[in-house]
Design a protein that fits this description.
The chain has 359 residues and is of the alpha/beta class. Helices cover 29% and strands 22% of the residues.
């Protein structure tokens, strides 16, 4: 990609940005939110058209008028925003628009489609029936299906936009195994992440964007943490935000927790979760577990978003009223896993969204 520029009304998203990705390498794209990373990748996949600049694939100028043009040239993208059809099953989603044909012209070989979908999901460690509807999965499981969908295209250029954001360490390990296998097969991979520690595990080169401009490009080496290395972590952060970072946070915030504010006893909910939990004033309690272990379900049950069958929830010793409204009156708040469908009214203003829970 050479000299790519793109302007939206009131925003200069990209200015003379160039990016070179070699076959069999992982090129990490770093930058703050709004740095232009996703816009650059949307141009690569044909979803946006650049105002200036050129794209070359295998040395040939590429004319990308639509995502279909990019797919034909071997470009596949895993976006942050999922593109699954909620009321199609997993196999249908993975092969949407590319369904394997049956023996009779105009028909679909569904057995083959589900078998191939099963193979892809097994490779990523997701043990879910391929006939499950997409909307029945949690965010992390949907992310794995998105990854399988991209891998099914046998892409030569694969863009991964924060693919690990919703995954646990176990799923990340499986994903990185797949990425290394793709590298061995000669696939060129662009990897966008805010997790700087992932650079050591998966990256070969780094390009840093800030305010829509290239501000640095480096080769990854094992001594990135060496303060003398031009791409050490401190320098990468400085390039990303444009100033030296001097603020550091303690590992422990709360040496002496206060009284128990949230007390959950033998809670059982219709969603199948069962748990006991105490949270004291001033402390942060983490819920750990693999995808599907019940972390999100427990949080929803505590907040009253899913119906509780038995057990109790108490806030400062008092049981809240029924449902989310009772939880809010008791002083609880829930930031849901799926912001897009459960957290925000996307067609309403920022003001409306900020105020709606307090009306």
């Amino acid at each position: 990609m050479r000299g790519i520029s793109k302007t939206f009304p009131g925003v200069r998203a990209l200015e003379d940005v160039s990016l070179v990705v070699d076959a069999g390498t992982v090129h990490v794209l770093l930058g703050q939110n709004g740095a232009g990373k996703s816009t650059l990748m949307r141009i690569l996949c044909g979803a946006h058209h650049p105002d200036a600049g050129e794209i070359f694939i295998d040395g040939q100028a590429a004319r990308l008028h639509s995502p279909a043009d990019a797919r034909r040239l071997g470009v596949a993208v895993i976006f942050q925003e999922f593109s699954l059809a909620p009321y199609l099953d997993l196999a249908q989603n993975i092969f949407l628009g590319r369904e394997p044909g049956g023996k009779i012209p105009g028909t679909i070989d569904r057995r083959r489609m589900h078998a191939e979908a099963r193979r892809l999901l097994d490779g990523l460690g997701l043990d879910v029936d391929t006939r499950t509807m997409a909307h029945e999965l949690g965010v992390a499981q949907q992310q794995v299906v998105e990854i399988a969908k991209a891998l099914s295209q046998n892409a030569r250029i694969l863009v991964m936009d924060e693919p690990t954001a919703a995954l646990s360490d176990h799923e990340i390990t499986r994903l990185f195994e797949r990425v290394r296998a793709l590298k061995r097969d000669g696939v060129a991979i662009v990897y966008i992440s805010h997790r700087l520690q992932e650079i050591f595990q998966i990256g070969d080169r780094i390009t840093v964007l800030r305010d829509g401009k290239n501000v640095g490009s480096f080769t990854v080496s094992p001594n990135l943490e060496n303060p003398e290395h031009p791409a050490n972590l401190e320098n990468l952060v400085r390039l990303m935000i444009g100033r030296q970072v001097t603020t550091a946070y303690r590992e422990r915030f709360c040496e002496t927790p206060g009284e128990v504010l949230l007390e959950v006893r033998d809670l059982r909910a219709e969603n199948g979760v069962h748990g006991t939990l105490d949270v004291k004033a001033g402390e942060v309690v983490g819920l750990a577990g693999l995808v599907g272990a019940g972390r999100t379900e427990l949080a929803r049950a505590i907040f009253g978003a899913d119906r509780v069958v038995s057990g109790s929830v108490r806030v400062i010793g008092v049981a809240p009223g029924r449902g989310p409204a009772g939880a809010v009156r008791a002083g609880m708040a829930l930031v849901p896993e799926n912001r897009k469908t459960e957290g925000l009214a996307l067609m309403r203003s920022v003001q409306d969204n900020v105020l709606v829970a307090g009306l």
